[in-house]
Design a protein that fits this description.
This protein is 41% helix and 21% strand. The protein is of the alpha/beta class. A hairpin with a 2-residue loop joins strand 10 (259-265) and strand 11 (268-271). Helix 3 (70-82) packs across helix 4 (100-108). The protein is elongated and about 95 Å long.
């Protein structure tokens, strides 16, 4: 009886001691964290370091010095992996611009079929010269959208800035006070193009850089997305979305039933999970939506190889 009482008291003492030690640990962790935060703020303030900017860089917003090419790593390491079992690689490059992304796809895949869309007449002329000997690159001089229509395309007169164009003039005015010119621009939706391009229905990857009009282009590809052929979609999200009123929530409403969302950064991809309004950051970055059956297979173990 005395032995049982002693064991009971010892267990009681142990529980109380364990509780006290846990309390000390939690308090120490809390005050240690607070001390670290104050030290970081002090050092940042004394050296004029922008902590918000550093956080942006770490999370994949803008480019992180020494300016790792996120897109090159994404295509050469991740995209090649998830498309390895796709026999015929068919890509859409919406907002082809100077052709850098199309060239990236050509460098990383054997004989892919690439459909490029660029509404700027000047940039389109350069693209024709660049890819004139590529029979597997199909160039179209119009913009992608939600429906077939005629619009105005605005761009800067400056040669250095001419590659920045948008259907929304206010967006260009926000970015720069440089003089702006305009062109008549045809707009069409992806789902209308199957008669002209028979294989476009087999598209497995879509890249969109449309200065805020990415959502409209995806809405114009409803049939293609429903087919299940499109394994991954990369789209830019930036301040242009403010002027077109296209929120990340809208992309979730359109895609999240079938696709997982990730944000590119210097290490690989950050999984965003279900919708969170904290991710509504209108600073230049790239979102990658991946069919859920593929994202579970590959993205848990994918990061940039150094």
């Amino acid at each position: 009886m005395i032995k049982m009482t002693l064991i009971f008291r010892m267990k009681n003492i142990y529980r109380k001691l364990n509780k006290v030690l846990r309390s000390i640990y939690y308090k120490f962790s809390f005050y240690s964290k607070k001390a670290k935060e104050k030290l970081i703020i002090f050092l940042a303030t004394s050296d004029n370091i922008d902590l918000q900017w550093l956080w942006y860089l770490e999370q994949g917003y803008h480019q992180r010095p020494p300016y790792v090419d996120y897109e090159h790593n994404m295509v050469s390491q991740f995209l090649k992996k998830i498309l390895a079992n796709v026999d015929k690689k068919v890509f859409i490059d919406g907002g082809c611009n100077t052709g850098m992304y199309t060239k990236l796809l050509l460098d990383n895949f054997e004989n892919p079929e690439i459909y490029c869309f660029e509404p700027s007449p000047i940039l389109f002329k350069n693209l024709n010269l660049q890819f004139q000997n590529k029979s597997n690159v199909f160039l179209s001089n119009f913009a992608l959208g939600e429906k077939r229509e005629t619009a105005k395309l605005f761009s800067y007169l400056s040669k250095e800035l001419h590659e920045h164009g948008s259907i929304n003039k206010n967006f260009l005015n926000y970015q720069s006070d440089n003089e702006i010119e305009s062109y008549d621009c045809e707009v069409d939706k992806i789902d209308n193009l199957s008669k002209k391009y028979k294989n476009i229905k087999n598209t497995c990857f879509i890249k969109l850089d449309l200065e805020g009009y990415e959502l409209k282009a995806l809405r114009g590809a409803a049939k293609l997305l429903k087919s299940g052929n499109v394994i991954a979609i990369q789209f830019e999200f930036n301040s242009g979305n403010v002027f077109t009123k296209a929120f990340l929530r809208d992309f979730y409403d359109l895609l999240y039933e079938k696709y997982d969302f990730f944000r590119l950064n210097h290490k690989g991809m950050i999984k965003l999970g279900s919708y969170n309004c904290n991710n509504e950051v209108f600073v230049q970055h790239n979102i990658v939506a991946v069919l859920k059956e593929y994202s579970h297979l590959y993205l848990k173990r994918w990061e940039i190889k150094k």
